[in-house]
């Protein structure tokens, strides 16, 4: 079994087991670089298992024979619970809400054994109200009227809406439900432009702040199919390779109508996870045409042409950041002023705040490198892109409808949001 | 909050707690308590406020109660007498009509952990076991475990134990799981909770009611059960099938663990369970949580020990993401190395090549050594990449490449010509002692084939005063000696200088002694020196090159789903040519070894090096199975050679035969399954003819046991175009390969 579990933030030591906290803090900081999630304590055969979420360490102490899957899943779940209850995960919020977190831990764990992590059960026991640190945030304003031209403007949920504590709805706060389709792409494009790897991992997340909603029905695309053999219809099928559902989801209407039924609990729930491997239904969203050469002065010239291949009618409406990272392993003096040089990671970072579909951007970097040889050219690359594509899913999965029963009062809000992140989007040069 | 020293804070808080105005206003009272807890969590010692807090305990405000209980539980150990005051309040709360208050009181009563209070706690605990509310029963059940922990010597009443057993049938699943946990603790001395047949079946039937944590726990307890019959076992297994592919990694892992322990005697069932679990495991590898990814990767490594090549088709799932932390990247590479096969080797190496220039030097080094590992089976392609990396002239990359080449040579001596060529070109001096050591070893052992070797050594010898690493010094000494033996004219002067320096000026006794030893050894003459210094060039202990044989599951089943797989953080060190090997001075050890004592692979290595000049076999261009079949069935266009090889024993595994054939550049194309009779192997190779291009040889080995006392292998060879001489040569190579295998089997049998 697990002996003690307490979470702590780096500075604010919530734990009463302060000696252990100090031991952990020393061990984790003494190790260089990224840490695997297990740290051993030399005395008493006790191990620390930790997870990093929201910039905080979530630590459990345990013995060697306990299941790492369980502990890590639990720590993740715990951090999600704290997030549900406190709104946002950060150090100030944790220290503000220490009483709530103590209470939560008390109910979740007894004598080191996990009792329950279901927010439905917990909500009966948790009495403390969350202290939310409301800061005036410029982004709230900028998010609203910035792209006034967009007709869908009113449909865009403010980004902070889903980061409030779940208990807010108790005293007559807005009742809202968010259904997020989040996909992560990992793509490798070879230097010849050939797609070498393309995986999409996605999930449908429901965040519910409706106290009296008994059932949600989520309709997916009717042509949605799982596996290779099961193609349906003639149109552009939406296909995934593997698909798994939360145990609370009832699938009786799924086979025929692609409808997921579930009774939502308050807080966040991952309803469905799916995976599409080695295939993209459309062309990869970005193509890069690099030219790398040496000029006569011994400088390295990197010319990058980046094309965005999305259908032109899909515009980005939130700031989307591209980090084009070119590793260079030589000392560099100074590049062009369009991008930033990060010597510690030997990279040039090119930030593109906005990028419309169907257009093309280019950049020219001149890099002074002492002792530039022809072999150094081999070291350039790969280019890695990180981006966020709002209102878009790489697999084409769409939510057809979202029905709640009983019929909710009119002031309730329903949000369906799509976003595709780049888990890893690498282009070799 | 203004900074206050600990004492002042405590004073301030006490004032607030004692203020009668505060007491009258519940909200202010709660806030005062809250401040105490805040101070406590910030590390201030507020134990002095204990009596004030005890007084504040008598309240109807649940939040305040909870806060005070946190305080009391933390400081009860330092204030055992005052804690007695709380007991009355707690016992009163245990009678409260609100189940939440009851469970809270009961939980904290047991959390005080004071042995002096045990007598007061027992009665409410017994009542708690029969409480109407499930949440109270949950607490009460675990309360007994805490009580036992507090007084491990005292016997818990047998009636209580019986009651706990009967609570296994409680309608609340958490109570059930807690009973298991409590009984496990209480009955530790008697071997924990008893899992008999009725309990097992009860638990299995209720598994679905539990949440994932409960399921994991129950599955873990079930590992203790041994089914009485095979039918029962299979019933259990089919009940658990859904959990095996559960989307929740903890449940999946716990189920696999249970399968492995139940199927200890049926390895085939265990293997098929693992195959079934690969999907969820792979999904966990792509989990959003990087810690979960890491855990899944570590367990996949375990899986691959018994099912090598299981995930070969999914190799792309293990490609590293740019932003992934180094510990995940390095694990992924280790998995990738295991997954390499003929179909994916090109893509895989191409991907690996990208990792070699990673910003993190450790990751780069891991990638290079991973390429070296792949080189054991696909040496040409890997070496091409490694040689290309030398061109980057990056210190840490060069060092890693040189070390990898050394390790590769140790197990694949046939790579030596490529490596020697590459070293010829390599002009760098490395900062890293490990890298220099590796370079020196190769210069010593393959010095006669690297024309510039003496000049490279000269650089080291000229700089000998600045050398700090003892390892490099010893290696330099040995390398110079070895090179002297094969190229005395160039080395004589240098070696003299080196020995002089080390004997006269060196402070490290170990190095000095070594130099003295060599000096004396040289006096004994060339023969003796050679005997001592001609160490092995390749690993004599290495059994099989490609695809290590599948381990049985039992080797690692006990560590599945524990922290053990996550802890092996360092790359298992390769069988490197250690200093001790280079310095092996015992003449009996070196000279007494005849090839016959070595394993087949080493003998084959000798074979290749000796036969390299007249006969060059190659497997490229590759032959597809279809084409092979067509050529094989072509009537009479080619020459047939039939032969019978007399073999005493011939029962080597397919993998090891394939490995050794590959070593001599003979490609095996197909095997019949191991137990099929007659057992057949199809193979092919191309042989270079002097000036007339190459000739293709196809072969079939048939091993039948019709006459058991006379175990033979029939060999049929077809050649195109015909060349008797090469065919005979090929046959002799084949014979040697087979012979080494049979003789090694014999020796194995003797052991």
UniProtKB/TrEMBL annotation, chain A:
Localization in the cell: Membrane, Coated pit
Major localization class: membrane
Domain MHD: 174-428
Originating organism: Gouania willdenowi
Protein name per UniProt: AP-4 complex subunit mu-1-like
Keywords: Coated pit, Membrane, Protein transport, Transport
Gene3D superfamilies from the UniProt entry: 3.30.450.60, Mu homology domain, subdomain B
GO biological process: intracellular protein transport; vesicle-mediated transport
This protein's GO CC annotations: clathrin adaptor complex; clathrin-coated pit
Annotated family: Belongs to the adaptor complexes medium subunit family.
Topology of the protein relative to the lipid bilayer: Peripheral membrane protein
Record SUPFAM superfamilies: Second domain of Mu2 adaptin subunit (ap50) of ap2 adaptor, SNARE-like
From TrEMBL, chain B:
MF annotations from Gene Ontology: clathrin binding
Keywords annotated in UniProt: Membrane, Protein transport, Transport
Topology versus the membrane: Peripheral membrane protein
InterPro entries linked: AP_beta (IPR026739), AP_complex_bsu_1_2_4 (IPR016342), ARM-like (IPR011989), ARM-type_fold (IPR016024), B-adaptin_app_sub_C (IPR015151), Clathrin/coatomer_adapt-like_N (IPR002553), TBP_dom_sf (IPR012295)
Subcellular location: Endomembrane system
GO CC terms of this entry: clathrin adaptor complex; endomembrane system
Main location: membrane
Highest taxon of the lineage: Eukaryota
Single GO BP term: intracellular protein transport
Gene3D superfamilies tied to this protein: Leucine-rich Repeat Variant, TATA-Binding Protein
Beta-adaptin appendage C-terminal subdomain domain span: 615-739
Family: Belongs to the adaptor complexes large subunit family.
Protein name: AP complex subunit beta
Organism expressing this protein natively: Gouania willdenowi (Blunt-snouted clingfish)
